[in-house]
Amino acid sequence: MSPAKVQDNHRRGYIVPVGGAEDKDSDPVILRRFVEISGDEHARIAVIPTASRLDDTGARYERIFRELGAADALALDYKRREDADNPKWLEYLHGATGVFLTGGNQLRISTILGGTDVARAIRSVNATGVSVGGTSAGAAILSEHMIAFGKSGATPRAGMVSLAPGFGLTNRIVIDQHFRQRDRIGRLLAALAYNPFAVGIGLDEDTAAFIDGDDTLEVFGSGAITVVDASKLEHSSMGSAAHGDTICMTGIRLHILNQGGRFNLHTRAATPPLS
Q: Which catalytic residues are annotated (predicted)?
């Protein structure tokens, strides 16, 4: 699932994975910033609550985005694959200035919306400048390679993680969420041990990566982002390991970035926050 081609007269919109459990009430830094990059008082945000089984998830985000100053927000409640054919919802999606996918189970998103006009529309509008974000499961689905299942733990092991196709807005990163809270560095390392092409992005809760059209990531929120750069990987034992074996990996670079920190996905250069 490759990213949609950005035409010469356009700039790709922001891609915004959020680590889950973002502050929605007292100081919603992340959601306020999402409204700003989606047009601020002119923002028209399509909320996709497909990952959630809770009936009020979409309505809650509609209210939050409107309270934060968006001109409009509408939940497109895709619950079955046939819902993806709803012409009114598809029209709203194509006219949105921001698209936001809620948390829940990322496989609900991929099995209900994968391969549909909705998934194609999300890639297409992002390529024309529309911001697309998601929290927790909604973050995992954004990249080409999505972590579908995995186990907790700091040590990477063979069979520790299962990957599935995501929406493919970017192929430069593999995303993991609730990162420090659920001790997920082992499974992110295991994902990169398969193929070190992508950059591993481990998102703490209430923390987001705002990735602009130049593929520069900036951190917003109260936690940190763990960036795992395996581009200089010297050795991975994944190819010879039996299921459950620990994985030997050498030559990995790791960065911990908090609010204001940046990482360039092209040059692989990390920049600390300005003092």
A: 136 (charge relay system), 178 (charge relay system), 205 (charge relay system)
Q: What is the CATH number of the domain that holds 97?
A: 3.40.50.880
Does 94 participate in catalysis according to the annotation? Answer: no
Kindly state whether residue 140 falls inside one of the protein's structural domains. Answer: yes
- Indicate the DSSP class of residue 37: H
Q: List per-residue pLDDT tens for the chain, 275 residues long.
A: 667 778 778 899 999 999 999 999 999 999 999 999 999 999 999 999 999 999 999 999 999 999 999 999 999 999 999 999 999 999 999 999 999 999 999 999 999 999 999 999 999 999 999 999 999 999 999 999 999 999 999 999 999 999 999 999 999 999 999 999 999 999 999 999 998 999 999 999 999 999 999 999 999 999 999 999 999 999 999 999 999 999 999 999 999 999 999 999 999 999 999 87
Residue 135 token pair: 């929290």
Quick check: 14 and 210 in contact, CB under 8 A?
yes
Q: Which of 19, 28, 1 is nearest to 223 (CA)?
A: 19
Please state, as a whole number, how many other Cβ atoms lie within 10 Å of the Cβ of residue 152.
12
Domain that holds residue 184: 15-263
Query: Is 156 within a domain?
Result: yes
Q: Which of 62, 144, 205, 218 is catalytic?
A: 205
Is 203 inside a domain boundary? yes
Q: Note whether residue 269 is domain-resident.
A: no
Q: Is 136 a catalytic residue?
A: yes
How many domains are there within the chain?
1
Among residues 62, 110, 143, 178, which one is catalytic?
Answer: 178
Could you tell me how many residues make up the chain? Answer: 275
